[in-house]
Amino acid sequence: MANTAKGKVCVTGASGFIASWLVKRLLESGYHVLGTVRDPGNGKKVGHLWGLEGAKERLQLVRADLLEEGSFDDAVMACEGVFHTASPVVTGSNSKEEMLDSAINGTMNVLRSCKKNPSLKRVVLTSSSSTVRIKDEADLPPNVLLDESSWSSIEFCESLQIWYAVAKILAEKAAWEFAGEHRIDLVTVLPTFVVGPTLSPELGPTASDVLGLFQGETGKFTTYGRMGYVHIDDVARCHMLAYEAAGARGRYICSAAVLDCGDLAALLARRFPAYPVPRSLPRAYGEQSYGFDTSKARALGLAEFKGVEEMFDDAVASFIGHGHLPAAEERRHA
Ligand SMILES: NC(=O)c1ccc[n+]([C@@H]2O[C@H](COP(=O)([O-])OP(=O)(O)OC[C@H]3O[C@@H](n4cnc5c(N)ncnc54)[C@H](OP(=O)(O)O)[C@@H]3O)[C@@H](O)[C@H]2O)c1
């Protein structure tokens, strides 16, 4: 039974992969949610949100765009907390300029709206583990455990043209500076690669990459190399804990496990033999053995992260449910 005494919070980019799951958990927990989307009238983008438990009574969707100054003012003024998740995620079509502009100026745009609301309790910004882990080999000693004090190297990301990471690093750094200057209570959540069920039948960039792996695609995960993985429900829980815990401060890495792409492919090929998952993938970046120290998120209340098997089981079940993958039985008999 939801505790309906909770207040009203704003979730930016509410129709996105992670944000939709966060909206689901916030509604279930009793919050009123004011979600911002670019096109509230687009049923294909937002239809899945209206089916959520509590949506009819406690969900409101309004239009806002990261690139329009002041676009978030009304939404933020109506709320006591803000989850800023909207940001372009890596796709082939994002140009460097578009990526940097929406992430950095968009985040500042949202924070300028936050500054105008004196009764705002806290802002939770969705950053990324890509702001922590992308460094030259010399700065990643064997088996190093990276924690929240680590920042990726902007120069190294630029040299590899990883504009998504550059955008996320600059956006998070700018957010910390602005929040410090204007005394905004900011907490950031840094998920690794997010895997799990998608609420929308329309797949976003990361869910599409996972689907590709189950269809035999090798390129994306090879370029991703060694990476952390986390279940979408743990990401939503981490956002809520970061908002609710009075003592939450600073950055929180949110990750269940770190795997080389080849080890991930081998695990999935064994677990899902009915699908053409590549049995191995080459190491594009040589030997890497870094991990993440997630003790801070654990101390916040995320005692147990769901494992890699569970997150991919849930993702596959959702792909089958939405008709993106045939059920394993259908594949065997086809
Ligand atoms: N997925 C991951 O593995 C992962 C890992 C770490 C961090 N993150 C971070 O988590 C957040 C959400 O990612 P996601 O995977 O859920 O991606 P997603 O499904 O693509 O959602 C991104 C959202 O950002 C919105 N957006 C993009 N440009 C916008 C603009 N100019 N104005 C307003 N909204 C805009 C999109 O709105 P439309 O629906 O209108 O396009 C969409 O709702 C991002 O900040 C991302 O960097 C993701």
Walk me through this protein's architecture.
This protein has 334 residues and is an alpha/beta fold. It has a single domain, classed as Rossmann fold, CATH 3.40.50.720. The protein is built from 14 helices and 12 strands. The chain has helices at 17-28, 43-50, 55-58, 73-77, 96-115, 154-159, 163-181, 205-214, 219-224, 232-244, 261-271, 295-300, 308-321, 328-333; strands spanning 8-12, 32-37, 59-63, 81-84, 122-126, 145-146, 186-191, 193-195, 227-231, 250-254, 257-259, 291-292. The strands form 3 sheets. It has a 7-stranded parallel sheet, with helices on both faces. Strands 8-9-11 form a 3-stranded mixed sheet. α1 crosses α10 and α5 runs parallel beside α7 (163-181). The mean pLDDT is 94. NADP nicotinamide-adenine-dinucleotide phosphate is lined by residues 13, 15-19, 37-38, 45, 65-67, 85-89, 102, 106, 126, 128, 168, 191, 193-194, 204-206. Residues 13, 15-19, 37-38, 45, 65-67, 85-89, 102, 106, 126, 128, 168, 191, 193-194, 204-206 line the site of NADP nicotinamide-adenine-dinucleotide phosphate. It holds the Pfam family Epimerase.
In short:
The chain is an alpha/beta fold and 334 residues long.
- CATH superfamily placement: NAD(P)-binding Rossmann-like Domain
What ligands are attached or bound here?
A: NADP nicotinamide-adenine-dinucleotide phosphate
Report strand %: 15-25%
Please list the strands of the largest sheet in the order they lie side by side.
3-2-1-4-5-7-10
What's the overall geometry?
A: globular
CATH class: Alpha Beta
- What do the pLDDT scores average to? 94
Organism: Zea mays (Maize)
Protein name: Dihydroflavonol-4-reductase
Pfam families: Epimerase
Keywords: Oxidoreductase
